[in-house]
Backbone:
């Protein structure tokens, strides 16, 4: 059995091409029915994410299967063939398994270590299974894929480090406060990054949100959107008592808060720690604020630096993850190769069974009438003789399938026991 | 027979230290769990050793620096396990277990008592004094170790450079809370130790306080902790300043503990416990 994977991803195809290719997979039921109609396709699964379109096929005849998949991708009328040729990649067997493992473990992702991809592959597999497009090979492969992805996540730190500015800010907050549940956040001004940070903070259980803006009306609108309270910017200094986290993004030009103001506020706060995030350019907050005890100030450049360090760390962890993937790929390929010996084992057993039956028939004809018990004992005798005789060849097959030339071993066994009597190369010609 | 359980206890402390250092490096949960169990084993062994001394000599160990170190190691391990049970800060073990190992090896290396100990040491009230003081010292030592971790983590967050320790140490809030909890437990114990000692001195020597070097240094440390506790409760001092003050208190305690051995003059000196 062979595996073939054909597809495009963000590295080989631009988004417009990927969009067009996605439209080739309109409705799972119909797609899988058409795939399985092709005689060379035994099992199939495809998955579409924002960064990739890939089809994975289990087949007995890999070359026609590759052509079949390529033809599928070439079906879009607006995609010029040469462009498709440049973008489409084909992976076979070991490479296909490794590719799938890397995709699910988020090693092949745009942002290495982002966890969404695993869920998308799981959902795709569920659909394929519902359409009965998967069988023993792909079922096993996909389940293995999920466990590899989990193992990578558990044993490497690939997903541990925040790689977006707003999430990095939240993770810093957790290193200061431990738990963000029940904390109060103050949002000064608004903007895309500030809003993302607020989303993350809410996700971490921040209990209370205060929104300050230059005009109270605007503050009220924003507060309503985030489910917080509105205050005007004039009250900012008075508002320094409640919040634990302040996100500032007005970019007004002057410092909204000076170190002296924060120092005074800290005394009134009884030195409860304060985490200030200044994502405005020009900066809203006096950089000297960071020199105060129990106050931590990060500006946009600091956060970008954190993100860059985290990306670096993820890359280092990714190298460890590649090792895990290689190990698991080798294991799966081993299993796949054992499958190749089963037809031979089955024909061996069948042949032995046939011989037993025929010989038993002959012998019983000679012996005359026997009691059912005696007949039964004779039957068991012949069976156990053949079973014992076959035991070693079968063990030999199962153990040796991983050797360098597994097909030669198989071939030898098939010729030795003459399992393919119609074959041209009878022993005499070889000798 | 002396030190029957000391070598196993030392091994257990070293093993626990190795497990926790391994946890610090590799971040594997099982290393930490194993560390707790091995630390528990070392507590059992140290307790057995203390019981053996008690049985043999009829008094608590504490007549020389070696015995005092044994008592301290026992108290440190017990206090660590107590705090670990209530407020688990896993990496603290990577500091506490090696320190306990150092204390146990100290008590193995240092010469044991020759001659008999002063009969004064057999008093029940003096035992109370010693136990309270040593438990207080152990809790305050943990506060100091926690403060070291706090200062490391604070430096990372302030300096915005995230190295080895950033990902491995808990949040500032947890470390500060550890400092506070150790302080609120250690300070009353230390106070109790001082008061019981004074009362005993009044009862035996006829004076509460003799300005002996150990007394003076302990009083200084006590004042540092008293100021810290007061400021924490009244003004909300915390974080870096609290950590620095805790560490300075710890330095005074260490000087007291080791120094008592060197100052032959005071009646707290170990050499004065021995009788020719």
Residues:
């Amino acid at each position: 059995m062979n595996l073939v994977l054909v597809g495009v991803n963000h590295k080989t195809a631009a988004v417009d091409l990927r969009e067009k290719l996605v439209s080739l997979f309109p409705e799972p039921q119909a797609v899988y029915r058409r795939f399985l109609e092709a005689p060379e396709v035994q099992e199939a699964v495809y998955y579409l994410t924002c960064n990739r379109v890939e089809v994975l096929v289990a087949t007995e005849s890999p070359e026609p299967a590759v052509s079949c998949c390529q033809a599928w991708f070439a079906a879009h009328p607006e995609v010029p063939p040469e462009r498709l040729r440049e973008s489409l990649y084909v992976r076979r067997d070991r490479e296909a398994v490794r590719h799938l493992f890397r995709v699910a473990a988020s090693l092949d992702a745009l942002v290495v270590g982002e966890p969404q991809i695993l869920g998308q592959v799981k959902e795709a597999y569920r659909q394929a299974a519902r359409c009965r497009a998967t069988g023993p090979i792909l079922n096993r492969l996909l389940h293995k894929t999920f466990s590899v992805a989990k193992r990578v996540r558990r044993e490497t730190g690939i997903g541990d480090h925040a790689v977006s500015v707003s999430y990095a800010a939240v993770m810093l907050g957790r290193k200061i406060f431990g738990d963000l549940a029940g904390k109060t956040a103050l949002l000064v001004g608004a903007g895309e990054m500030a809003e993302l940070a607020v989303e993350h903070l809410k996700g971490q259980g921040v209990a209370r949100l205060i929104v300050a803006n230059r005009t109270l009306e605007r503050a009220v609108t924003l507060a309503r959107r985030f489910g917080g309270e509105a205050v005007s910017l004039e009250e900012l200094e008075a508002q320094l008592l409640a919040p634990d986290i302040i996100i500032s993004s007005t970019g007004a030009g002057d410092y909204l808060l000076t170190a002296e103001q924060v120092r005074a506020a800290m005394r009134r706060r009884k030195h409860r720690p304060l985490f200030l995030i200044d994502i405005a350019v020009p900066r809203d907050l006096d950089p000297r604020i960071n020199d105060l005890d129990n106050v931590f100030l990060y500006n946009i450049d600091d956060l970008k630096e954190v993100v860059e360090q985290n990306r670096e760390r993820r890359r280092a962890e990714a190298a460890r993850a590649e090792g895990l993937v290689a190990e698991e790929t080798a294991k799966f390929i081993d299993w796949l190769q054992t499958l190749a010996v089963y037809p031979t084992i089955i024909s061996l057993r069948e042949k032995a069974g046939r011989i037993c039956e025929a010989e038993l028939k002959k012998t019983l004809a000679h012996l005359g009438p026997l009691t059912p018990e005696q007949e039964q004992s004779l039957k068991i005798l012949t069976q156990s003789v053949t079973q014992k005789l076959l035991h070693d060849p079968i063990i030999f097959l199962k153990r040796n399938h991983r050797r360098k030339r597994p097909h030669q071993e198989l071939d030898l066994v098939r010729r030795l026991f003459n399992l393919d009597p119609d074959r041209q190369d009878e022993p005499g010609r070889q000798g | 027979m002396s030190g029957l359980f000391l070598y196993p206890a030392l091994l257990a402390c070293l093993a626990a230290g190795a497990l926790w250092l391994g946890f610090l490096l590799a971040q594997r949960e099982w290393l930490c769990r194993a560390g707790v169990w091995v630390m528990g084993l070392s507590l059992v062994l140290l307790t057995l050793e203390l019981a053996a001394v008690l049985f043999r000599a009829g008094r608590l160990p504490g007549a020389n620096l070696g015995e005092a170190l044994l008592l301290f190691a026992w108290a440190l391990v017990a206090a660590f396990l107590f705090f670990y049970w209530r407020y688990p800060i896993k990496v603290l073990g990577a500091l506490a277990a090696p320190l306990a190992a150092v204390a146990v090896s100290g008590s193995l290396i240092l010469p044991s008592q020759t001659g008999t100990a002063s009969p004064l040491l057999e008093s029940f009230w003096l035992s109370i004094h010693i136990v309270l003081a040593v438990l207080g010292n152990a809790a305050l030592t943990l506060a100091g170790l926690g403060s070291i971790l706090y200062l490391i983590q604070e430096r990372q967050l302030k300096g915005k450079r995230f190295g080895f320790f950033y990902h491995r140490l808990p949040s500032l809030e947890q470390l500060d809370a550890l400092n506070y909890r150790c302080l609120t437990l250690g300070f009353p114990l230390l106070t109790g130790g001082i008061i019981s000692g004074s009362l005993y001195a009044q009862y035996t020597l006829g004076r509460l306080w003799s300005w002996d070097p150990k007394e003076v240094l302990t009083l200084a440390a006590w004042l540092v902790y008293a100021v810290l506790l007061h400021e924490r409760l009244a003004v909300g001092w915390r974080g870096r300043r609290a950590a620095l003050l805790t560490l300075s208190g710890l330095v005074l305690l260490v000087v007291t503990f080791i120094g008592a051995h060197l100052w032959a003059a005071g009646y707290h000196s170990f050499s004065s416990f021995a009788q020719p």
